[in-house]
Amino acid sequence: MLLVGIMLGPFVLGVLDENLLAVSADLRLVALIIILLRAGFELNRRTLHRVGGRTLLLSFIPALTEGGAIALLGPWLLGLSRLESAILGFVLAAVSPAVVVPTMIRFIRERRGTRKGIPTMILGAASVDDVFVIVVYSALLGLYTGTEVNVLWKLAGVPVAILLGAGAGLLLGTLLCWFFDRFNPRSTKRVLILIALTVLLVRMQSQIELHVPFAALIAAMAIGLIILERREEMAHELSAKLAKIWVFAEVMLFALVGAQVDVGIVWETGAMGLLLIALGLCARGGAVLLCLVRSNFTWGERFFVVVSYSPKATVQAAIGAAPLLAMRLAGMDTGPGEIILALAVLSIIVTAPAGAWAMSALGQRVLEVEPDDQTCKP
Fold first, then answer.
1. 377 occurs within a structural domain
2. Among 301, 326, 330, 353, which residue has the least CB neighbours within 10 Å?
3. Confidence class of residue 147 from pLDDT cuts 50, 70 and 90?
4. CB-based contacts of 211: which residues, under 8 Å, 6+ apart?
5. In a domain, 373, yes or no
6. Cα R_g (the chain), whole angstroms
7. What is the total count of domains within the chain?
């Protein structure tokens, strides 16, 4: 899908219509919302409570370690300043829910790794990881371009944004349960209502953030979680409908991500860019293993979590070009922005397909299948 998008995109054959590319960001956002809603419908509260401590650690330590490693190595390998390297580090540090979530959902359905809560842990941590990375990246970019920003205040707002997002999602999910019980719309209408409300919530985030920190994507997952908790049969029905929509949304998402890829810029980064991405992933992998110290996971299961935390795609496609645009608007040298964009694109090409394949292959080998008659103990 990525390769098709690259070939049809404006930088190779130029077949895709400009109007489609103009709304590409909106279409990719809708696709991301669909996959996060699906993730919410697979988040069992008891399992999440059991692995909550590990989930919290995995939510920020690996991203912070990878971003920090790239910030340290960027000046040496690419000639960027320390702050430019830090911006690059937190563009690259986000894991891709669009790559990770479908595989984890499949493993939950197959009851593979569910006895230890491994897929649920990765689902929850990967989503919060993105919120944390985007907040840090925004603060660093504001510092670089001279925008007045309080980094410590923004970082302090991360838990507030997550809690408010989760609270809003739980409230909205509870209201939807009442609404669906009261008026009993068909499942197709329920799904359309669910998607529409979530898109509206995500669009309102920028207005809400003028007053309080808010994470709308966390709210999307919380909606699914509370519906699963209160109306399990309805949740499975809605999840099945979303899975059918995802068949189309997946093609749309990854093809349009591929269309953002400028092959020429990627080529210019060369071996140093690949080396920096690889070293960042090594730092992330070490941090993941550190988060799993004293867990009851086997070494194969720990390595599976490391691999699951490697794919890049959605966030990099969304924010990879933003530093370049910000530098251009500020009248600054755009060279560093071009390097950041090139590395964001290269990370997608290198890690998304390889990560998707490795997760599936390794999960089949190392994750234990839980018998159907055994339930997860809280």
1. no
2. 330
3. low
4. none
5. no
6. 20
7. 1
- Asked whether the beta carbons of 187 and 244 are under 8 A apart, the reply is no
Q: Is-contact 289 32, C-beta < 8 A?
A: no
How far is the C-alpha of 235 from the C-alpha of 253, rounded, in Å? Answer: 24
Chain segment 198-207, per-residue pLDDT in tens: 999 988 888 8
Listed as own residue / partner, the contacts of 287-290 with beta carbons closer than 8 Å and 24 or more positions apart are: 287/61, 287/62, 287/64, 287/65, 287/66, 288/58, 288/62, 290/61
Distances, alpha carbon 371 to alpha carbons 111, 375, 376, in Å: 8, 8, 11
Q: How far is it, in rounded angstroms, from Cα 273 to Cα 261?
A: 15
Q: Check if the beta carbon of residue 141 is closer than 8 Å to that of residue 323.
A: yes
Q: Which of 357, 356, 293, 359 is nearest to 113 (CA)?
A: 359
Residues 294, 78: Cα–Cα separation, whole Å: 37
Beta bridge partners of 369: 112
30 and 279 Cβ atoms separated by less than 8 Å: no
Task: Summarize pLDDT for 229-284 with one digit per residue, the tens.
Answer: 999 999 999 999 998 998 888 888 888 878 877 787 778 777 899 999 999 999 99
Which CATH number covers residue 301? 1.20.1530.20
Residues 14-32 as b/e (b if ≥16 CB within 10 A, e otherwise) read eebeeeeeeebeebbbbbb
Pair of tokens at residue 92: 């690259």
Q: pTM of this prediction?
A: 0.85
Q: Is residue 163 part of a domain?
A: yes
What is the distance, to the nearest Å, from the Cα of residue 322 to the centroid of all Cα atoms in its chain?
A: 17
Kindly give, in sequence order, each residue whose CB lies less than 8 Å from that of residue 9, ignoring residues fewer than 6 positions away: 16, 21, 258, 259, 260, 261
Q: List, for residues 55-71, the tens digit of each pLDDT value.
A: 999 999 999 999 999 99
Domain that holds residue 49: 2-366
Task: Kindly indicate the confidence band of residue 293, based on its pLDDT and cuts at 50, 70 and 90.
Answer: very high
Mean local confidence (pLDDT), 84-112: 92
Residue 247 is assigned to a structural domain of this protein = yes
The count of other CB atoms within 10 Å of the CB of residue 290 is: 12
Mean pLDDT, rounded, of the chain: 88
The string of pLDDT tens digits covering residues 306-346 is 999 999 987 887 788 788 888 888 888 888 888 898 898 88
CA 321 to chain centre: 17
Token readout for 161 is 């944004």
